[in-house]
Design brief:
Elements (H helix, E strand, L loop, with lengths): L2 E8 L3 H10 L5 E4 L8 H4 L4 E2 L8 H11 L6 H21 L15 E2 L9 E2 L5 H15 L3 E4 L3 E14 L2 E15 L5 E11 L20 H9 L3 E2 L4 E8 L11 H5 L3 E3 L19 H15 L4 E4 L5 H7 L1 H9 L9 E10 L2 E3 L11 E3 L4 E2 L12 H18 L1 H7 L20 H17 L6 H21 L7 H22 L17 H4 L4 E2 L6
Parallel strand pairs: 1-2, 1-9, 2-6, 9-16, 15-17
Antiparallel strand pairs: 3-5, 4-5, 7-8, 8-9, 10-15, 10-18, 11-14, 12-13, 13-14
Helix pairs in contact: 1-5, 1-11, 3-4, 4-11, 6-15, 13-14, 13-15, 14-15
This protein binds succinic acid.
Length: 541
């Protein structure tokens, strides 16, 4: 059964929920989310939201820190917008019921945390479970709202677009693509059509493309891959942020040790107990993430050790239990008492700074298609995201896209929606294929990306990765038509698309900048490369 809404929102993290709450008074909203509604990257965000709230802080300082982290590639207009609009949107979250940690019990002042690259304490947080608290409140409100319907365990397969070709005689002047919804695999494995006047991709990032990641299993780059297939422009996909400190333990899956631990005095040490960050940057452990992740990578390669350690045991145990209850309990459950023991850590893929290119309103270059949050590339992060700027970006752009979407709603309603074409390309289902191909391809893509397209890259490794991925694509294209359509297969194809795009963008950029470090081009080259990398599939001519 086809469904029709004013707004189709794909994803139920901070971006999708905030957008939905902002438009739902005036339009009907469907939120489609591929697992349970809380299963989002937002829900796992530990650090917090960077925003100018302290008396010693200023917009100019936050702008300066963001631009510095972005290593020459941020869009300053976007940075100023996000920094300026942040505090009011954070206050709105407080009005909605989000309980951020206070400086003291019953105090009106918030406890502002410190993270790498920030020149002031400006991270508003809910202990070390900020995302969970924000998600809780936004979900509660969305569930209560009569204008919002949430569809759990619904996996978006592809966007529905219509190409309009403008031509003079036989010359094509312009090919305009418009989105009017998506095809979705529902919880009972049926393919359903969700028609919408505006569609919003809030599908998060791509961490699962790497063997080691801080991201939950849902982060398979679905929105980015769908947008690419539909002809949207992607930008800066070579800039993958590796978080320096994920817990290293055979029974810890994807568990982050928040940067806030270093903000509160945690020091990185090697296996012999030597603090090494002084060798790499004057800010030591509070340097930006690209610097810290590369330093750890270098130390591990030098020593041959499997991990380094983060030591915060010099701080008061009661403070640690209060400030980091989630990290304290998780580590304790694995036999690590952070009040006494150093924590074994390794870097892991954490955040995609590139994504679907959007303008200042969150619009992609496909009409009526927006992208918000990690799936989008707004220009805020440039070549390296400043810690805790991502939830902030999601809030600001959810707001901007909601305003824009509402502004167009009346005219979109007058125009109506196209009727579905007869020859809708329903993905083929087959019988008799072997799922082992899917599981195996998942593994090799993730290992390949980790080994060849990780923190430190080279032309040779990138070229090898490109060739291997092309071979995997051939195998998948040849063998998967025999496999019945299923979630793992859909995600595998998205993962492969994203991996190929990351590699291509990394090969295109002939310099090192921010998160992209290439041994064959070890220096930043402003003369040729102070620009974005774009990638787009030509689909209509
Ligand atoms: C962290 O808590 O270290 C993660 C914060 C972020 O990625 O912005």
């Amino acid at each position: 059964m086809d469904r029709m809404f004013d707004f189709l929102v794909i994803g139920s993290g901070i971006a999708g929920l905030t957008f939905s709450l902002k438009v739902a008074e005036q339009g009907s909203v469907a939120i489609v989310t591929k697992k349970e509604k809380v299963e989002t990257s937002t829900n796992y965000a530990q650090g917090g939201i960077a925003s100018v709230l302290g008396p010693d802080d200023s917009f100019d300082l936050h702008v300066r820190d963001t631009l510095e982290a972005g290593d020459g590639l941020c869009d300053e207009e976007v940075v100023r917008k996000v920094v300026r609009e942040g505090p009011d949107l954070v206050r709105e979250l407080v009005e909605w019921g989000v309980e951020f940690s206070r400086a003291k019990r019953n105090s009106k002042c918030f406890d502002l945390g410190q993270e790498g690259g920030h020149s002031r304490r400006r991270i508003i947080h809910a202990k070390d479970m900020t995302g969970r608290e924000v998600e809780r409140v936004l979900l509660e409100r969305a569930e209560e709202h009569p204008g919002i319907e949430i569809f759990e365990n619904h996996l978006a397969l592809d966007l529905l677009t219509e190409s309009r070709v403008f031509q003079a005689g036989t010359t094509v002047l312009k090919c305009q693509n418009r989105c009017y919804g998506a095809r979705v695999l529902d919880s009972e494995n049926r393919i359903r059509t969700f028609l919408a006047r505006s569609t919003v991709l809030c599908t998060g990032g791509t961490g699962k493309v790497y063997l080691y990641t801080s991201n939950p299993d849902v982060a398979t780059g679905d929105g980015i891959a769908m947008a690419y297939r539909a002809g949207a422009t992607l930008a800066d996909m070579e800039f993958v942020q590796f978080h320096p400190t994920c817990l290293y333990h055979p029974h810890a899956k994807n568990f982050l040790i928040s940067e806030a631990v270093r903000g509160e005095g945690g020091r990185l040490i090697d296996g012999r107990g030597r603090a090494f960050m002084g060798d790499y940057h004057p800010l030591k452990d509070l340097a930006c993430r690209d610097v810290v992740a590369r330093a750890i990578d270098t130390e591990m390669k030098k020593s041959g050790d499997d991990c380094v350690y983060l030591d915060i045991s010099h701080r008061d145990p009661e403070f640690l239990k209060r400030r980091f209850p989630n990290i304290y309990n998780k580590c304790l459950s694995l036999g690590i008492d952070i009040t006494k023991d150093p924590i074994p850590v390794v870097p892991a893929a954490h955040y995609m700074c590139g994504g679907i290119r959007t303008d200042i309103h969150g619009r992609t270059d496909i009409e009526r298609l927006y992208a918000i949050g990690e799936a989008a590339c707004t220009g805020l992060h440039g070549a390296n995201r400043l810690a805790s700027n991502s939830l902030l970006e999601a809030l600001v752009f959810a707001n901007a896209a909601a305003e824009d979407g509402l502004g167009n709603l009346e005219s979109a309603r007058k125009e109506g929606l196209p009727s579905l074409p007869q020859d809708v390309d329903i993905p083929k289902t087959g019988e008799g294929g072997e799922m082992i191909l899917v599981a195996h391809s998942w593994d090799i893509i993730r290992r390949l990306m980790w080994n060849y397209v990780g923190i430190v890259r080279s032309e040779r490794r990138l070229s090898l990765a490109k060739n291997h991925l092309a071979q995997i694509k051939l195998e998948i294209d040849e063998h998967t038509p025999n496999i019945p359509l299923n979630r793992d297969l859909v995600e595998l194809k998205n993962l492969l698309t994203v991996a190929q795009i990351i590699v291509q963008c990394a090969l295109n950029r002939k310099e090192s900048r921010g998160l992209h470090y290439n041994l064959d081009y070890p220096r930043r080259d402003d003369e040729h490369w102070r620009r974005h990398t774009f990638i787009k599939k030509e689909i209509c001519i």
